């Protein structure tokens, strides 16, 4: 579809796997999509769904330079373009400078104070407890010695803001097998907002997410529950095989925590199944799009379109959910299958990358496995 000259564009930051799904969704609706990224190897940048690709400053390295870049190029990108940051650092950069950016752009998600609140694991777990939403046994690191003595091992030390933690340590969490290790990790992570958490023995396929777009008035314009069957690397990796499986309890709890914060925008609220407690436990809230957002899109809950339409003042709502579709990230699923037999990709499958009508991203995926090197994405 060709976009009308009066239709605002969409700007997708960090345009990799997640950005590819967002770009394809919006382009199919006639929206012109521009990809912004400091790294040209992102898969979404190779898509025909993107009309322009630009290298921009990395907000992790220089937020002010990123904001100035956005303001300087507003007339080129198109006044009133809708912003779609795909990772936490991009969300935070836009939110911190919202008052300046929204003079030129539309921002379809909450204010900084709300974003910071949902990303703060300490506050999130405390508030979930007050709402009666079960969580893994979690401890602050205000008194590391007391926590090291009280917690059950193995345990993890996890950060509030994942990307900065990963860039410093090269891992998403620290796994502590004993008190000595936990105390060491607590010292190393002292400059980051972290919590300590007991590891739940999650059975295969025990990871669930409530995915939604909530309008500024609090209405859930579209909601979807996905069940993560496989992740890579195993343990603390990201999803590579996910199935649509609507679970009312998860949808209700996800909605409740978002409502408690007054959050609006696209989000993913993560849960795990605890076989000992026989409950779904709240794990995280991601106030943004995420890696397998292509699954709800294909299942009738087109969250990027709902966000875009709402930013323009249109009251769009999701279609009824087509349950049971499976989403696969081809690369990671294939690597996982080298070591063991994974969950099967039976039924109708949504590919993260491969599309015969849009082969560029798959070609870029192959290039990234060669001398060009891998593209880092925290999704």
In CATH terms, what is the fold-level topology of the largest domain? Answer: D-amino Acid Aminotransferase, Chain A, domain 1
Please identify the top-level CATH class of the largest domain. Answer: Alpha Beta
Number of E-type strands: 16
Distance between the termini: 29 Å
The percentage of residues in β strands lies in 15-25%
CATH architecture classification of the largest domain: 2-Layer Sandwich
**Overall domain count:** 3
Rg, rounded, reads 20 Å
Number of helices: 15
User: How would you classify the helix and strand content by structural class?
Assistant: alpha/beta
Largest sheet strand order? 14-13-10-11-12-15-16
| Unreliable stretches | none
Fraction of residues in H or I helices: 25-40%
Main sheet overview: 7 strands, mixed
What report would you give on this structure?
With 379 residues, the protein is of the alpha/beta class. It has 3 domains: 98 residues, NAD(P)-binding Rossmann-like Domain (Rossmann fold, 3-Layer(aba) Sandwich); 62 residues, Dna Ligase, domain 1, CATH 3.30.1490; 161 residues, ATP-grasp fold, B domain (D-amino Acid Aminotransferase, Chain A, domain 1), CATH 3.30.470. The protein has 15 helices and 16 strands. The chain has a 7-stranded mixed β-sheet with strand order 14-13-10-11-12-15-16. It has a 5-stranded parallel β-sheet with strand order 3-2-1-4-5. The protein has a 4-stranded antiparallel β-sheet with strand order 6-9-7-8, sandwiched between helices. α8 packs antiparallel against α10. The chain is globular. The model has no long low-confidence stretch (mean pLDDT 94).
């Amino acid at each position: 579809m060709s976009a009308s000259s009066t239709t605002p564009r969409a700007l997708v930051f960090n345009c990799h796997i997640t950005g590819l799904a967002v770009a394809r969704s919006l382009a199919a609706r006639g929206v012109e999509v521009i990809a912004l990224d400091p790294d040209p190897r992102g898969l979404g940048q190779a898509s025909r769904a993107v009309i322009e690709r630009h290298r921009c400053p990395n907000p992790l390295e220089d937020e002010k330079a990123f904001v100035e870049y956005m303001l300087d190029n507003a007339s080129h990108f198109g006044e009133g373009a809708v912003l779609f940051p795909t990772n936490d650092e991009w969300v935070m950069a836009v939110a911190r400078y919202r008052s300046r950016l929204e003079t030129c752009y539309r921002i379809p998600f909450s204010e900084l104070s709300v974003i910071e609140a949902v990303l703060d694991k300490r506050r999130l777990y405390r508030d979930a407890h007050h709402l009666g939403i079960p969580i893994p046994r979690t401890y602050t690191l205000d008194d590391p010695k007391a926590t090291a003595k009280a917690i059950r091992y193995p345990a993890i030390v996890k950060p509030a803001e994942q990307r900065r933690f990963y860039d410093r340590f090269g891992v998403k969490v620290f796994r502590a097998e004993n008190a000595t290790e936990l105390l060491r990790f607590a010292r190393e992570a002292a400059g980051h907002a972290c919590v300590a958490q007991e590891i739940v023995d999650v059975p295969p396929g025990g990871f669930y997410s409530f995915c939604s777009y909530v309008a500024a008035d609090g209405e859930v314009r579209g909601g979807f529950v996905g069940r993560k069957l496989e992740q890579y690397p195993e343990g603390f990796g990201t999803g590579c095989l996910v199935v649509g499986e609507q679970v009312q309890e998860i949808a209700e709890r996800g909605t409740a925590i978002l409502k408690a914060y007054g959050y609006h925008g696209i989000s993913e609220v993560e849960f795990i199944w605890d076989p000992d407690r026989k409950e779904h436990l709240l794990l995280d809230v991601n106030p943004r799009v995420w890696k397998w957002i292509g699954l709800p899109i294909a299942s009738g809950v087109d969250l990027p379109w709902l966000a875009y339409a709402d930013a323009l003042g249109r009251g769009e709502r999701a279609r009824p959910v087509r349950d049971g579709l499976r989403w696969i990230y081809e690369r990671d699923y294939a690597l996982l299958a080298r070591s063991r037999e994974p969950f099967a990709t039976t039924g109708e499958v949504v590919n993260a990358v491969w599309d015969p009508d849009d082969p560029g991203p798959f070609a870029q995926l192959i290039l990234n496995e060669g001398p060009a090197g891998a593209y880092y994405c925290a999704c």
